[in-house]
Amino acid sequence: MNLQIEMEHHRGVLIVRLSGELDHHTSDMVRMQMDEAIQRRQCEHIVLSLKNLQFMDSSGLGVILGRYKLIKQKGGKMAVCDVNPPVHRLLDMSGLFKIMLVYENEGNALTELEVVS
Length: 117
Fold this sequence. Notes:
Layout: E1 3-10, E2 13-22, H1 27-40, E3 45-56, H2 58-73, E4 78-81, H3 85-94, E5 101-103, H4 106-112
Parallel strand pairs: 2-3, 3-4, 4-5
Antiparallel strand pairs: 1-2
Helix pairs in contact: 1-2
């Protein structure tokens, strides 16, 4: 299975929707596209929607952690939402939920980041 990445900018927030598998085959592409979007446009925060992410390995964790560090250095926040059970378990075991905000859906994440009017 491949990976599809959809990105949208919403009031200073980069919303990234991942579908498929985030692994050693696809992690470099995701990293490069997210870094380019962060640098090309002004974004204060990142919302990572994992609703349709079926699989993730340690390479995917590295991509997420790296983007978290990048946005944190800029004074922003990174939130994860719509995490399905297998990916949720991996993120929980990795300890990412201890440092990153987690929400049920994009709407809640955007509201909490105070970007919804």
